[in-house]
């Protein structure tokens, strides 16, 4: 996502990261990943529940897609961080337009299940509602 940040900015799309981690762990993550976006902490997981991002089961979260994603990271010389929180909590992507209409709602089945940048950009280009 970071390498495509200018493409989102060109479309006036603002990105925010939502996490249920503690503020200290979120800060460490932002520093390690060099995230340029604001991070919102949802320690009660209210936002997660509102978008049906509940908990997954072990077989789904740690399925082949996740192992393949980890393998690719290993091949690049990157090792996953030691988890400190609920690894079964599902995440996802939600694209909300300025009129608060949800343009894209994707609940991931694991860490590797994310829409690609092209899908996010396509969703942002959908016909705008009349004013």
Can you describe this structure?
By secondary structure, the chain is of the alpha+beta class. It has one domain (2-124). The chain is 35% helix and 13% strand. It has helices at 5-10, 23-33, 46-50, 58-61, 64-75, 117-124, and strands at 17-19, 39-41, 92-96, 102-107. A two-stranded parallel sheet has the order 1-2. A two-stranded antiparallel sheet has the order 3-4. It is globular. The two termini are 31 Å apart.
Provide a short characterization of the protein structure:
This protein is an alpha+beta fold and 131 residues long.
> Would you tell me the overall average pLDDT?
86
Q: What strand line-up does the widest sheet have?
A: 1-2
SSE topology string: HEHEHHHEEH
Report the C-alpha radius of gyration, rounded.
Answer: 16 Å
Strand content bin: 5-15%
Question: How are the SSEs ordered, and which strands pair?
Answer:
Blueprint: H1 5-10, E1 17-19, H2 23-33, E2 39-41, H3 46-50, H4 58-61, H5 64-75, E3 92-96, E4 102-107, H6 117-124
Parallel strand pairs: 1-2
Antiparallel strand pairs: 3-4
């Amino acid at each position: 996502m970071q390498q495509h940040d200018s493409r989102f900015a060109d479309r006036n799309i603002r990105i925010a990261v939502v996490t249920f981690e503690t503020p200290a762990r979120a800060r460490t993550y932002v520093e390690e990943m060099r995230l340029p976006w604001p991070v919102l902490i949802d320690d009660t997981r209210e936002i997660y529940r509102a978008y049906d991002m509940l908990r997954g089961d072990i077989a789904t979260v740690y399925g082949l897609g996740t192992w393949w994603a980890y393998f690719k990271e290993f091949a690049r010389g990157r090792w996953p961080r030691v988890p400190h929180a609920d690894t079964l909590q599902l995440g996802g992507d939600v694209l909300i337009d300025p009129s608060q209409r949800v343009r894209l709602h994707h609940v991931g089945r694991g860490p590797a299940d994310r829409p690609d940048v092209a899908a996010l950009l396509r969703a942002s280009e959908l016909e705008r509602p009349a004013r």
